[in-house]
Amino acid sequence: MGYPHKPHSKETLVLSKHFGEADARTYKGWVKRGGYEMLAQALTMEPARVIDVVKESGLRGRGGAGFPTGLKWSFMPKEKKKPHYLCVNADESEPGTFKDREIMRWTPHALLEGAAIAAHAIQAEVVYVYIRGEFTEPWAVMEKALAEATAAGVFGAIKLHLHRGAGAYICGEETALMSSIEGKRGNPRIKPPFPAAAGVFGMPTTINNVETLAAVPPILKKGASWYKGLSLASPKSTGTKLFSVCGHVQRPGNYEVTMGFPLKDLLYDLCGGIRPGRTLKACIPGGSSVPILNREETEGCLLDYEGVVEKGSMLGSGGVIVFDDSTDMVYQIMRLARFYAHESCAQCTQCREGTAWTTKILERILAGQGKTADLDLLLDLADNMTGKTICVLSDSCAAPVVSGIKKFRNEFEDYLAGRRKPVMVA
Amino acid sequence: MSVSAHPTPQPGTEEYQPVFVGGTLEELSGILTRYPTKQAALLPALWLVQRARGWISDRNMAEVAEVLGLTPAYVKGVVTFYTMYHQHPVGRYFVQVCTTSPCNICGAESVVKALLDATGAKELGATSPDGKWTVIEVECLGACGFATPVLINDDCIESVTPEQVPELVRKYK
User: Fold this and answer.
1) Crossing angle for the helix pair B22-32 and B42-53, nearest 10 degrees?
2) Selected residues 355-414 of chain A with any CB under 8 Å from a CB in chain B
3) Cα(A163)–Cα(A369) distance, rounded to whole angstroms?
4) How far is Cα A282 from Cα A312, in angstroms, rounded to an integer?
5) Nearest alpha-carbon partner for A234 in A320, A285, A321, A309
6) What is the pLDDT along chain A (426 residues), one digit of tens a residue?
7) Contact B145 A246 (CB under 8 A)
8) C-alpha dist (Å) from residue B134 to A96, A149, A255, B1, B94
9) Do B36 and A253 lie within an 8 Å CB cutoff?
């Protein structure tokens, strides 16, 4: 198995530096590359000092929300009265995102080292790495790496365990993930209490994304100011980010660039542009849960937390889905809505009913049986699905629908007016 | 999904063999040491059942319940939440094809069709007459840059095109 592409000169390799090197997966190979040095160093540091370094670096959560990592760690009780836990969110299921998969496949020890450093920082003795059930190969690589590193005794008193999911997107939501570890249905929980107060098994818990944790050892090694300096636009977004690019580009894959990198360069330079003879129509920049950008917005977008918001979307997980001019946007928005209807945990009415009805209405528009009022109905439904539920799955279904109708209304109207051949949806 | 296509035994009439004996029971004991509660070992325990039996029958759910001190109804509630646990027998090769938007725009639907034809499963969720193949569509396998990804049991095959399907299926004969 080889890594799909050689590094591009515009990439900044921090996390993906050793992707494609089979040897880097082994404990010996990782140690040869300087691995576990930072863990050994961190274990001699005061936990609060480790948190300070990460705070200073400006590292923000790479799972989607972009919450400052050091600040999140600092919410954990300083004085330890109960067991503390760290959960690693490796339930990567956001359509368009496949970066954590690559980190686990190629550099499992980077994740394990980062997780152990984080555990030390928050004074957790147990770490659960929650890996989605479909990730059979990343699981096997992680299992081997964990066994080797544990045998080498690098984790000290910290115990790390892998926990396999079983096919539920919602378990990537942090409170649902904790429910799932506890042996329950993956239902999200109402916050507060926040995980740092009462998380998994009712104990103080921190949940971090794979990519976030993998960035911690390099930050300790090269220093917070080095990481902070990796920023091309907004100073609030620092470091490098892995962007997973998929859809209608010539070279889909994971590309690591400095925060603030132009989306246009990512698509046209690094990914080789749109498929031959085609032009860009739309792009979802941060995984399927964020609003769709049209061509103009895409080509003017800078890839950091602030830059994407400026264009009306979100950086999310960094899963970039590219649609060319051959795409039927109504059909694709239906597919996305169907995804959320399938993955709703069905606790909240707005989500259970909203995602299902959104899909049904989109299917009827596609089938040529839509009514003129359907677009308003979809928008009204989306309004009732936004900000009203325990978690944001429902909002995530509404985002592509609302932005899709706003930016590609003519395509919806073509179906409604019978100008477009109906599509029977299976 | 055609339910009639599955030869699912009537509850209570299926051939029952306990899973948690010998080596598997020891394995479960090892898993239990990782968690502060017995309940937390539920997902791993269900994976052990599926590994041993290929699917999870009501009788085996009751067995898991007994081993972990839960009720059979509770265990069933959890089994039905997670899509990867099979509640009825499936083919020897269980094929999952991603058809979510990013794969969909790269031709996932024609990969599904090719798989249904080449395996003889014909219909989504149904098992081929020789008992070898079950093909289902799934939402996002997390390999969007390698459209279309196909999981055959635990093997993830990337960038599958309809043309490659007959050869791929032959490999598993």
Assistant:
1) 160
2) none
3) 46
4) 13
5) A309
6) 467 788 999 999 999 999 999 999 999 999 999 999 999 999 999 999 999 999 999 999 999 999 999 999 999 999 999 999 999 999 999 999 999 999 999 999 999 999 999 999 999 999 999 999 999 999 999 999 999 999 999 999 999 999 999 999 999 999 999 999 999 999 999 999 999 999 999 999 999 999 999 999 999 999 999 999 999 999 999 999 999 999 999 999 999 999 999 999 999 999 999 999 999 999 999 999 999 999 999 999 999 999 999 999 999 999 999 999 999 999 999 999 999 999 999 999 999 999 999 999 999 999 999 999 999 999 999 999 999 999 999 999 999 999 999 999 999 999 999 999 999 876
7) yes
8) 26, 38, 35, 11, 5
9) no
Q: Say which CATH number the domain at A373 has.
A: 1.20.1440.230
Superfamily of domain B93-171 in CATH is Glutaredoxin (3.40.30.10)
> Which residues does chain A have within 8 Å of residue B41's beta carbon, measured at their own beta carbons?
183
- CATH number of the domain within which A143 lies: 3.40.50.11540
Nearest residue on chain A to B140, judged by CA atoms? A95
Considering the domain architecture, whether residues A89 and A214 belong to the same structural domain is answered as: yes
Whether chain B has a CB inside 8 Å of the CB on A16: the answer is no
Q: Which residue has the tokens 């544990």?
A: A150
Inspect the interface and report whether the beta carbons of A135 and B142 lie closer than 8 Å.
yes
Q: Assess if residue A4 is contained within a domain.
A: no
Q: Where in chain B is the domain with CATH 1.10.10.1590?
A: 16-79
Interface mutation vs chain A, best among B43, B96, B155, most A CBs within 10 Å: B43
| Interchain pair B140, A168: CB under 8 A | no
- Rounded CA gap, A321 and A403, in Å? 15
A317 in reach of chain B (CB within 8 A): no
The domain at B16-79 falls in which architecture? Answer: Orthogonal Bundle (1.10)
A158 CA to chain B: closest CA distance, Å?
A: 12
**DSSP three-state, residue A304:** coil
